[in-house]
């Protein structure tokens, strides 16, 4: 019994290997890119538009609104990163209704990779927004004593991100697999439906947390300035 | 170990590639399309606003023009109505004038006709009467009458007085030749002597007398010298009578014309006139009587005009004008 799709290896040459996680990720990427290319190839700027265009527009504008609601002033700047996070995780989790498919998010490698991306992106966005000095100074807030704790929290929340997503998805597919052996009728379907729900919730949680981290990193300097002007 | 580091790196790369690809193929086109649509909608709304403002302006303009046109139309209608009314009035007046003119003209013509006829009749009667008188007197005239005539003549000579007598005397004495005495019949010698004697007695002059006969005198005697004449004859009487009757006849039409306006109100010509000219009598009546009911109906229609609706009165007026135009030719016929 496999815990993760990493264990299903199609091809290996030393360090380089082609496991199910990578293959399914490529498949998802292909579907998403080709689908969006096809759908956005004939976008209409008029008052009438196709249903697919409507769906895409709803998705994009909803993501934008969510980012804005959390506190980022320029949502379009972060749309590429945060939107892709949500869409990729959501698509990966949604596809478990396809038989034989194993979600790449059920692999700790994938979730760790995503968490690492967030871990790197947060300071990048923060530095871009307020400069290296100001960003680094934010680790010493409110006092220098907090510096190690801030660094620890930074690392631990990244790990939490990775493990939370992995645990949820992996447990979901594990339960379905176990239930299939016990009651191969109806119950696995119910659990799959539950898995769809938890998958979407996890996608939402992951991207929202990433947004919150970025917002916190980009906002510190502004709040400081506000405090100064307030004093 | 659950984490395979190669897979982690691959997945991170995959994710970054996916970010780039989705940015390129999904977010940008979608956002561009949304922006373009929003811009388009905003443009269209602005355009619609501008158009609405323009439409409002044009509507206002049209309303103003419409009002102007209405006013103009009303003014024109009023003017046309007024003009039509005045024109109608004028035509009515013209027709009335014409009819009255024709009526007076006809009346005048009739009056002239009547006068002429009267004159002709009276002249004819006069002539006949005098002719008869002359004939009767001629027939009756004879020697015995001649004697009476001479007597009257002598008596007249005796009655001559003052200036007349002197003038006659001077005239008689001046005349070189014999004085002419004309009679209708041959005078016997005794009568001639009587005349001669009377002249001598009254005028105190001896003169030569020459006697002549003339049928013009009807019956009578006439003594003529240069410019002076002493005479008595029935013809004289008849002539003077004729003259006086002529004068009377001439005066009569004038007095008739004076009394006519009074008598016209109820035209009652004499029976004799009506007999001689029955057509002339009935026609003046028709001309004088016809306009009266017409005028009455006109005033009636005027009062009706106020009470009845316009259409009816219009019809009536039309029928009136028709009636007038129908009566006109009958008036002008004679």
Summarize the structure.
The complex is a heterodimer of chains A (231) and B (334). By secondary structure, chain A is mostly helical. Chain A has helices spanning 20-41, 51-70, 75-94, 108-130, 132-137, 147-182, 187-230; strands spanning 9-13, 16-19.
Structural account:
- The complex is a heterodimer of chains A (231) and B (334).
- In chain A, strand 1 and strand 2 (16-19) form a beta hairpin.
- Chain A is mainly alpha-helical and 231 residues long.
- The mean pLDDT of chain A is 88.
- Chain A is 74% helix and 4% strand.
- Chain A contains 7 helices and 2 strands; from the N terminus they run E-E-H-H-H-H-H-H-H.
- With 334 residues, chain B is mostly helical.
- Among the domains of chain B are: 11-104; 141-243, no CATH class.
- Chain B contains 9 helices and 4 strands, in the order αααβαβββααααα.
- In chain B, helix 4 links the parallel strand 1 (179-183) and strand 2.
- In chain B, helix 1 (5-140) runs antiparallel to helix 7 (278-289), helix 1 packs parallel to helix 9 and helix 2 runs parallel beside helix 4.
- The model of chain B is unreliable at 262-308 and 318-334 (pLDDT under 50).
- Chains A and B meet through strand 2, helix 1, helix 2, helix 3 and helix 4 of A and helix 1 of B.
